[in-house]
Structure formats: structure tokens, C-alpha cells
Specification:
By secondary structure, the chain is of the alpha/beta class. The protein contains 16 helices and twelve strands. The strands form two sheets. A nine-stranded mixed beta sheet has the order 1-2-6-5-4-3-7-8-9, with helices on both faces. Helix 1 packs across helix 6 and helix 8 runs parallel beside helix 9.
């Protein structure tokens, strides 16, 4: 585990590249002891990546840092471990590792995420608590983000019903945010778990909250939105859920209510409607949940022109007029993978760091591709 913790500490190496290492059976320990020459055979590493790894190997005390971490009494799991949540393995850009206090969600049980507006109404508060309690009594785990408003109400409703609830934070697992939720934080540690992909001690930042939303939806089988404004962060969770193939349900509201705009717009896009909590709970417990498998997000969100551009992209940079260095690996190909940007915006980016040959024909007459870093934005 100490080498996995070392790789986790390399925060400048993206989750996507860490997953590629895992897919190619390159463990953290193997990477730590890999000769410098072999690092250049990993074509999705940039020169900066190699400098980070080599510099860390020279200065990082693996034993000391691992002992210091163990003293914090925080759980740690990576995608190399069997305990890693299976649901997260199937999402786009899964976190390489998770830190947790308490426990991780039970793999054998179903989970529902309940999220919504921070400045919710009294009605939204009541609905979130009643819904979470009703689901909990059926043995369903509740996932949320422990934010003010609907998130807090969902956690409380679950705890009051004696259920298990899990909070995915936009800070380190050992950092309670917001501070007024300390009582809730302490209860969740006992009756569920506090989860974060961020290093312990990390303070909350605005950019971390949209990032954690993919984990909230990823850990869940169904996502429920209870009140959301036009630009609510809850809509980001809904976007991630739809990308991951999860069912999204909403609580409908009055068209004159700003807190209902987000939910009503999701209904327009085809989200399910919860018009009776008892019937909803009965339906999903009797009919079961849709099993989600890994999706090729490019097939689901790209139109024909965007797909054409992607078809011309390759993960390996092509130098000016020089032959491309071949991939020297018989395991799953490293080329063709798409690395996600850590963008906090609702528009998430899929980046392919390459330069196309100047002779590559462009999809428009009389033009050629520029030698630039392509960054394609795909709204999901």
C-alpha cells in the first residue's frame, strides 16, 4: 500500500494516466522501481510527468510517509485493490484512490444519491428527509455531498431512519465542510462513511465540488434531484449520472419557482418524475435497478463532426516530420485513450495531447490541421 500511497501523492499525474497504468498492469511499486529508460516507453507520459516521477523517487521517503499517514486513522483504497467500489470502475475518469473515514458503501446493496439546492425551501427539506428515510427503511444506502440544504436533509433523513449514508466531500476526508455540519459529520462516520479523492488535510476549494459530483453519481444506482436553480451544481451531478448511464429522477415544482427550474428542465430532457414517494420506493425496490456498464462517452455525446475530429486524434504526439515511436507494449493499447481535464465548469473537456501531421487532410477544403494541442469540449 505504501507505493500506492506514493502514486496518489503525485497529484500532478492525472487520474486518467494512473488508470492507464493500471490497465497496462503497471503497478505503483513497479513504477517506483522502473528504470529511467523504461519510463520513456510509456508514451502517454510527458517529459514533465517523467520529471515529477524521477524527482519524487529521489526525495520521497516511502516508509516514513506511509507510517505518518497510518497515524491519521484514515482508510485508503486504490483501483488496484479489490475493496475499491466496483461502480466507480465503470465511470469516465474514475478516481485512482479514495480516502475514507468509517466505511465505503456496501457493494452488495443498492445506493441512491439525493442532491439539491443549498438554499432549499421548507418543502424541499421535508421531501428530502422523507424520501431518504423511506429508501433507508428498504435497506438502500443514501449518497450525498454533506453540503448545506438538500444534501444535509438527505443525510439526516437517512440517519433518523437508522440507515447508512455516505458523504463525498469537496475537501480532504478529515476536513469537515461546512463547519456547521460537524454534528452530521461525526454521525456519518459511525453510520456510514466520509469519502474523498483528495489528500487528507486538503481545504475545500470551489473547483473541487463539481469534481466530486462524478463520484456521488458514480457510487449510486439512481440519482434524485430535489430542487435546483438554473445553474445549480446539482445539475452537474445529473449530467454525470446521465453520462454514466444512471437513471435520474426529479421532484417537480411550480414553473414560477426559481428552485424548480433545474428539475423542470431535467423533466424536459427525459428525467423520471417522483410524484409519490411511496410509489417511487415501491417501484424501484420491486423492479430493481438498472445495471450500469461502462459506456463509450464519445458515442453518446458527440455529433458526426465531433466524432470525425476524434477519429483523427491519437494519444501519441507526432513530431515534425519524424517517424512516430511505436508502442512497445503487448498489453491493452495506450494510444487512443482520452484524458479528461479537471475542469470545474459544467462543460467538461476531453483532451488529446498530440500534433497531427501537416499533411493530414482536414474535413474542410483547402485547409490542413495546425500543429497544436487539441482540446475538444463536449457538453455532457
Amino acid at each position: 500500500m505504501k507505493f500506492k500511497y506514493w502514486l496518489t501523492c503525485l497529484t500532478d499525474i492525472s487520474n486518467a494516466k494512473k488508470k492507464l497504468l493500471h490497465d497496462c498492469s503497471i503497478t505503483a511499486e513497479k513504477l517506483f522501481f522502473m528504470p529511467k529508460s523504461e519510463l520513456f516507453d510509456i508514451l502517454f507520459f510527458t517529459d514533465d510527468d517523467r520529471k515529477i516521477i524521477l524527482g519524487s523517487r529521489a526525495s520521497y521517503d516511502v516508509e516514513k510517509e506511509w507510517i505518518l499517514f497510518q497515524q491519521k486513522d484514515i482508510g485508503f483504497v486504490t483501483m488496484e485493490d479489490e475493496a475499491y467500489p466496483d461502480k466507480l470502475r465503470n465511470i469516465h475518469n474514475p478516481p485512482y484512490s479514495l480516502f475514507y473515514i468509517g466505511a465505503l458503501p456496501d457493494k452488495s446493496r443498492k445506493s441512491v444519491a439525493i442532491v439539491g439546492a443549498r438554499g432549499r425551501s421548507a418543502y424541499g427539506c421535508e421531501v428530502a428527509k422523507v424520501l431518504a428515510a423511506a429508501l433507508s427503511r428498504q435497506g438502500i444506502q443514501i449518497i450525498s455531498g454533506m453540503a448545506r440544504g438538500i444534501d444535509r436533509d438527505a443525510h439526516m433523513g437517512c440517519l433518523e431512519a437508522g440507515g447508512n449514508t455516505y458523504a463525498v466531500l469537496g475537501s480532504g476526508a478529515d476536513t469537515c465542510y461546512p463547519k456547521e455540519n460537524r454534528f452530521l459529520y461525526d454521525k456519518i462516520k459511525v453510520s456510514g462513511g466520509i469519502i474523498s479523492e483528495l489528500m487528507p488535510g486538503t481545504d475545500p476549494q470551489k473547483m473541487f465540488f463539481p469534481m466530486r459530483n462524478r463520484i456521488i453519481s458514480g457510487l449510486s444506482d439512481i440519482v434524485v434531484i430535489v430542487e435546483a436553480k438554473k445553474r445549480s451544481g446539482s445539475l452537474i451531478t445529473a449530467d454525470f449520472a446521465m453520462e454514466q448511464g444512471k437513471d435520474v429522477y426529479v421532484i417537480p415544482g411550480r414553473i414560477t419557482d426559481t428552485l424548480s427550474y433545474g428539475c423542470n428542465s431535467l423533466i424536459k430532457q427525459g428525467a423520471g418524475i417522483i410524484y409519490n414517494i411511496d410509489e417511487f420506493v415501491s417501484d424501484i425496490t420491486m423492479t430493481g435497478f438498472t445495471e450500469c456498464t461502462q459506456m463509450d462517452f464519445r458515442k453518446n455525446i458527440l455529433d458526426k463532426k465531433e466524432a470525425l475530429v476524434y477519429s483523427l486524434l491519437d494519444f501519441c504526439p507526432d513530431s515534425h516530420g519524424l517517424p512516430r515511436k511505436p508502442v512497445r507494449c503487448g498489453r491493452p493499447q495506450w494510444c487512443g485513450q482520452i484524458e479528461p481535464c479537471q475542469s470545474p465548469a459544467r462543460t467538461r473537456f476531453a483532451c488529446a495531447p498530440l500534433c497531427l501531421p501537416h499533411h493530414t487532410p482536414a474535413p474542410w477544403p483547402g485547409k490542413t490541421w495546425p500543429r497544436v494541442l487539441f482540446c475538444l469540449a463536449a457538453r455532457v
